[in-house]
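Data deposition worksheet. Section B asks for the primary sequence of the deposited chain exactly as it was used as input, without tags or linkers unless they were present during the calculation. Section C holds the resulting structure in token form. Section D is free text for depositor observations; keep each observation to a single sentence. Incomplete worksheets are returned to the depositor.
Section A, Depositor: J.P.
Section B:
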Amino acid sequence: MKTFSLNIRGRLVEFDRPAVMGIVNATPDSFYGASRVAGAEEVARRASAMVGAGAAMLDMGAYSSRPGAAEVSETEEMARMECAVKAVRDAVGGDIVLSVDTFRASVAEKAVGEWGADIVNDISGGLLDEAMFSTVAALACPYILMHMRGTPATMQTMTEYSDVLADVIGELSRRKAQLEEFGVADIIIDPGFGFAKTAAQNYRMLAGLDAFGLLGRPVLAGVSRKSMFTRELGITAEEALPATTAANAIALERGAAILRVHDVEAAVQAVEVVSRINQQPYV
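Section C:
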């Protein structure tokens, strides 16, 4: 199993097994309806339940990135994120690792610099806000570098690759090098399942997930209830937990260090089972 460490506000946090990151969406239109929460009390309840179920990290979102989602102004995202981050910190305390899912440097700066978040999770890999890399460097916080092309509105028209695995690794490698030039040390790699990828390309990346280890950083797998299951299997997001759990187990076997999920308990159990399979020697 992959072990890794992160510098969280000057404190070295070590993970001796893959971490489960619970998704908390402070949005009215995320693709999976059951993940949506509104208001500080509901956010706090969801966060507390996820931590109680074994989440080592939480990821707060205030802007839906699903294809066709409505545009959210910077002011609206800022207000939603501030409410959510503060509610989570009040509910679960300062020890839980808290990530903010935003591509706006201004939101990242406030969330980490003032409201108590620890990690910036940027779906665009710095492509949608040229100030993001310098902002993360100034904040000295871990950064989740995700692969995407275009914007959430255009990304599914940008799925041409010579070899999706090699091309995505190459594009991430170049962005990682730019981050390192800014002095960002703690980088987490996210292949970007569902972002500028066809279903077949998503499965190709999952099958070859271990290749992302070439980048020398912890790898995050975020496949929870996505269309790579719903469209291919003819099911709804509400019915996609079994497929998600199967894919999470495969991701763990192929070196994932973090699972970003809607369903913490199922993911924690997957980590436990895979951990036991990998224990040696067998009795």
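Section D:
The beta strands are 4-8, 11-15, 19-25, 57-61, 97-101, 119-122, 143-146, 187-190, 220-221, 258-261.
The longest helix spans residues 74-92.
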